[in-house]
TrEMBL record:
Signal peptide: none annotated. The keyword Protein biosynthesis does not apply. SUPFAM superfamilies: NAD(P)-binding Rossmann-fold domains. Pfam families: adh_short. Belongs to the short-chain dehydrogenases/reductases (SDR) family. It comes from the Bacteria. Keywords: Oxidoreductase. PROSITE patterns: ADH_SHORT (PS00061). This is SDR family NAD(P)-dependent oxidoreductase. One of its GO terms (molecular function) is oxidoreductase activity. The keyword Ubl conjugation does not apply. It comes from Arundinibacter roseus. GO terms for cellular component: membrane. InterPro entries: NAD(P)-bd_dom_sf, Sc_DH/Rdtase_CS, SDR_fam.
């Protein structure tokens, strides 16, 4: 996919990986970018700090854990951009804690933003673009592949995204493509914000990388429309046994992909 002269949506754009990604986009030409974040002050400060270029930045402030806010985001995209060549569904957060409480709302909050929001956005991208080719990149985590104590709910959500993509690749037959990036711990304020008390310091997993490294990998993933993106070579190499197991199971998944097509065909013939 060509990035020059494209239309895009970036969520979680005011800090961390999202902010670094905006800086990477500044080296391209004539972009129209709908930038979204929950913090209007941080979003405006980020846009003011970007170098002058030929881009058109369209800000959107909203809580993307809410369906209505995602609908509003895509309504604005329709009015301001028309169609969207690529979207980076990057908004998300973590808890660092022991899971020993009864709080439905707290659990729902993290799954609404980290899981349901990008999946619903993927559907909205298909509706907005129709047959026009497009690409959706979802920010997952290395914790989707390896759970780390203290980040149980965060890892569970990222693993849910990973399993979704593993099945969805067999189901999707439209013009839209989807990819997922799996950063290791990134040196931003992300982990500090995972604790309830700002005076406490969370345990940050080793190894780590800069948000700029992740942003560069995201660019390459978009250009080549990759399904899986691993910004850390260390992570990619160390998970080879796991990846080999996944490859061995591919025929099993392919069999059930054919069964799904047969089932859908029978259902359509009955209508």
């Amino acid at each position: 996919m060509k990035i020059n002269n494209s239309h895009s949506i970036i969520t979680g754009a005011a800090s961390g990986i999202g902010r670094a990604f905006l800086y990477e986009l500044c080296s391209y030409k004539n972009l129209t970018i709908l930038v979204a974040d929950i913090d209007e002050t941080s979003l405006q400060a980020t846009l003011r700090a970007l170098p002058e270029n030929s881009h058109r930045w369209v800000p959107f402030t909203g809580d993307l854990s809410q369906k209505e806010q995602i609908d509003a985001l895509f309504e604005k995209a329709k009015n301001e951009l028309g169609t969207v060549d690529f979207m980076v569904a990057n908004a998300g957060f973590a808890y660092y804690e022991s899971f020993k409480y009864e709080d439905w709302g707290r659990m729902q909050k993290i799954f609404d933003l980290n899981v349901l929001s990008p999946l619903y956005s993927l559907q909205k991208m298909k509706t907005l673009n129709g047959p026009k080719p497009h690409y959706t990149l979802i920010t997952s985590s290395a914790m989707a592949k390896l759970a780390i104590p203290g980040y149980a709910l965060y890892g569970a959500g990222k693993a849910a995204l990973d399993r979704f993509l593993d099945a969805y690749r067999f189901e999707s037959h439209d013009s839209g493509k989807v990819g997922m990036i799996y950063p290791i711990a990134t040196r931003t304020n992300f982990f500090q914000e995972a604790v309830a008390d700002s005076a406490q310091k969370p345990v940050v997993p080793w190894p780590s990388q800069t948000p700029e490294q992740v942003a560069k990998a995201m660019i390459q993933g978009i250009v080549h429309e990759k399904r899986h993106i691993y910004p850390s070579l260390f992570h990619q190499v160390t998970r080879f046994p796991q990846q080999l197991y996944e490859w061995l199971l591919y025929p099993y998944q392919a069999f059930y992909a054919r069964e799904l097509k047969k089932w859908e065909s029978r259902f359509q013939n009955r209508r």
